[in-house]
Amino acid sequence: MTPIANVLDKVLRVLCVVFFAALVIVVVLQVFTRQVLSNPLTWTTVAAQYLFVWLSLLGSAWVFSEKEHIAVDFLTRALKINSKKAMEVFVNVIVGLFGALVLLWGGIRGVGITWSQNVSGLPVSVGMMYLALPISGAIIVFYALHHIIEATQGRGLPSLDEEIREAV
């Protein structure tokens, strides 16, 4: 699974950079045409929204793959999970379920409902924006499974002592 994860990481990294650069260009173009030319391009608003949604969802999947997401450990403390391995598996199961049910399944339903709705000013449908949901959901489910396998094989998150040693 690691070679697939490595390739997927690289693809996500490139897509995020491309989407961010495109977002910056579209917003600068929007501001320029509105403020300097006094004739705003109507499609730039919708294009910026679509780029932002795609960037946010794919960026979230990439951050999750890198294990750089915000760790909310109040639930593991409340459940008194003392084992680091058990905590990692538990958290990744919860994130995987969220990715599968909310993003993947809910996203597929959203895409189906909105695929035929046209967007004014752009040759795309509303469903194309919602397509980011199931794609990021599938990626997050993949990484959740990958992290669970790593945790059960002892290659999960480093211990606090290991992190301190690496920082020094």
From TrEMBL:
A Pfam match? DctQ
Q: Name one GO cellular component term.
A: plasma membrane
| Keyword Cell membrane attached | yes
Q: Which residues form the signal peptide?
A: none
In what residue span(s) does the Tripartite ATP-independent periplasmic transporters DctQ component domain sit?
A: 23-153
Q: Which residues cross the membrane?
A: 12-32, 47-65, 86-108, 128-145
Instruction: State where the protein is found.
Output: Cell inner membrane
Supply one GO molecular-function term. Answer: transmembrane transporter activity
InterPro entries recorded: DctQ, TRAP_DctQ
How does the protein associate with the membrane? Answer: Multi-pass membrane protein
- Presence of the UniProt keyword Cell membrane in the record: yes
- Give GO terms for biological process: C4-dicarboxylate transport
Record keywords, A-Z:
Cell inner membrane, Cell membrane, Membrane, Transmembrane, Transmembrane helix, Transport
User: What family is reported?
Assistant: Belongs to the TRAP transporter small permease family.
The protein's name in its UniProt record: TRAP transporter small permease
Provenance organism: Tessaracoccus rhinocerotis
